[in-house]
Amino acid sequence: MGTRKGRERQQPFWMATNEIVQSPGNAFYDRLNQILDKRRFDIHVERLCRRYYNGPFGRPSLAPGVYFRMLLIGYFEGLDSERGIAWRVADSLSLRKFLGYALDEQTPDHTTISRTRRLFWLETHKAVFNWVLKILIEEGLVEGRTVSIDATTLEANAALKAIVRRDSGQKYDEYLRELAQAAGIENPTREQLARFDRRRKKKGSNDEWKHPKDPDARITKMKDGRTHLAHKAEHAVDLASGAVLAVTVQPASEGDTRTIHKTLEEAQGAVTELVDENGIEEVVADKGYHSGDVLEHLEEQHIRSYIPEPDRGNRHWQGKEAEQKRVYKNRRRVRRAKNKGLQRRRGELTERSFAHMYDTGGMRRVHLRGRDNILKRVLVHAGAFNLGLVMRNLFGSGTPRQLHDAGAAFWAVVSRLLGFILHFLLTLPQSLLRVGNSIGSGDAFTYTPPPPFCRRLRTSRLTTNPGC
């Protein structure tokens, strides 16, 4: 038996490279590198990022292809922070191979990733997202005729207790203490301030308060009912394949009827430029997007809407004949059987993109501040999600975990099949012997079924159980 004490020894000062244990690699990342190398991903991003570097002097910087690959790792591994990505890359031999780093090379630190992200413009990240979108179009995974739009909230990297007033910069605790003293509470304690604050109404106005480090964050109610500083991410998803055509990050305090215009504009530009000049034909959304302005905007672009109408009671259409006509057209389309199928696909595919990018992808709570910084990371996440669709179409697995589970299921079936074959081979001589004895004795031939499968054979050990 080996012991840990027996393995305690002084490490050699020099070691030959042929004696170093090599990593077998990761099948998923090897196939992903095949797709990226086939389409010359590194040459493309180096051409995009050439403007950010000045001359051949100085220390070699982080290669653009390595930077974007590290953000792809953040999505596929479910890592929420750049610090976590840097640690994971330094710890994994297979990820070193995916990035192209040898064992004697130092992997990038999280400060290098952060500085590179701040250096690269937002337009560069959008160009990388559109480059991935072209791969989906080449594979026939994007139609662009029917698009679903929906939004979700991302918890900001900012605490409510640190907000300050927009006009004077006064902290919330100081402001609350002044209100308590004006109400007759001298030298209020912390419990008294908390009790006094709970009785106040409309105390969290985004027009009056902001976070000093992240002014783009907005006070909003999350999906689970909690109140946080948050951002709003909105997706435009192709209902033919589930591919993300556009993604925007906007203030969380704005309603869906105001944010849809920017997201639809991004999706329309991507479809007309890359897929079809005619653009989007149908838009599917939930009832939060229903308004007269939205329907008017869609009709101007010759887009059919499938947006359920909320219960607003009896409406008066005097002087609003054009809006009434648009609302009634949308209402007739919503009542058709086609709308039920579209809404079902919207709930399946659009929510799937949210789940993969923000829940398992690790971006439900962002670790960045500023809308542009968050959008840079979200754009690469959306590109990684689309790359997962390409991987699933070509190889049957869109994530490393899915590939591992598929391999485990395959080998489980193979081991079960081998177990049955082994059982048959072990019981075959006994069956032939019984048949020979029956024929030699002159008895009538009767077939005796084999005994039940012995579970002990799964351990690949011989057993003395006579039933096996």
Folded structure, characterized:
By secondary structure, the chain is α/β, with parallel strands linked by helices. Helix content is 49%, strand content 9%. The strands form 2 sheets. Strands 1, 4, 5, 6, 7 and 8 form a 6-stranded mixed sheet that branches. Helix 3 packs across helix 14 and helix 4 (82-91) crosses helix 6 (110-119). The model is unreliable at 453-468 (pLDDT under 50).
Structural descriptors:
disordered C terminus, six-stranded mixed sheet
Which stretches are low in confidence, meaning pLDDT under 50 for 5 or more residues running? 453-468
Rounded to an integer in angstroms, the radius of gyration calculated over CA atoms is: 31 Å
Count every beta strand, where a strand is a DSSP E run of 2 or more residues: 8
Tally the helices: what do you get? 15
Query: What portion of residues belong to β-strands?
Result: 5-15%
Any idea what the shape is? globular
Q: Percent range for helical residues?
A: 40-55%
Q: What can be said about the biggest beta sheet?
A: 6 strands, mixed
Q: Which class do the helix and strand fractions yield? A: alpha/beta
Average residue-wise pLDDT:
85
**How far is the first residue's CA from the last residue's CA?**
33 Å
Q: What is the H/E string?
A: HHHHHHHEEHHEEEEHEHEHHHH
